[in-house]
Design a protein that fits this description.
The chain has one domain. It has 4 helices and no strands.
Length: about 70
Amino acid sequence: MISNKVEFEYFLKGKLAENGFNISKLSEVLGTSQQNISQRIKKATFDYIELSKIADLLGYDIEWVKRK
């Protein structure tokens, strides 16, 4: 579980790198500036729909699993 903004930043940047992406390429695909993406990663201000798009772009599914 990601519990803070720093963990989110490392997690997302790691997933981007694992899949041959960087912030520049992600910003092109999302149609926004590199600075905007960098700030939003640092501040962890993506909404669920945007994160779903990023996950899809990287070949991941976001799944909600009920805890036992």
